[in-house]
Amino acid sequence: MADNADRAAVTIQQSLEAALARKANLAQQAASDKCIDCGYEIPVERREAAPWAATCIECQGMRERKARQGR
After folding, report:
1. Positive or negative torsion for Cα 48, 52, 56, 62
2. What's the CA gap between 70 and 61, in Å, rounded?
3. Which are the contacts of 27, defined by CB distance < 8 A and separation ≥ 6?
4. Cβ neighbours of residue 61 under 8 Å, at least 6 residues apart?
5. DSSP state letter for 33
6. How far is residue 53's CA from residue 5's CA, in Å, rounded to a whole number?
């Protein structure tokens, strides 16, 4: 029978695996030179400044504005 420590360990492990999967997905998206929102090429300057970026600057700006409005 599992005790609280065992259940906590399973929950932590699942959380870590999910976080790693999200990071791997972001890294894979960022490896592309295409914006995940609009599909246009991310400018070289942006990719050099933010290699992890998965969106072009215009789409990232729209995401940030939407996030501020949602607060």
Report:
1. negative
2. 14
3. 52
4. none
5. S
6. 38
**What's the mean per-residue pLDDT of the chain?**
87
What is the per-residue pLDDT across 29-50, written as a single tens digit (0 to 9) for each? 656 789 999 999 999 999 889 8
Q: Report the length, in residues, of the chain.
A: 71
Cα dist. 17→20, 22, 31, 65 in Å?
Answer: 5, 9, 21, 30
Four-point Cα dihedral 62, 63, 68, 71, nearest 10: 140
Fill in the amino acid letter for 46.
R
Q: Residue 11 is encoded by which pair of tokens?
A: 């929950």
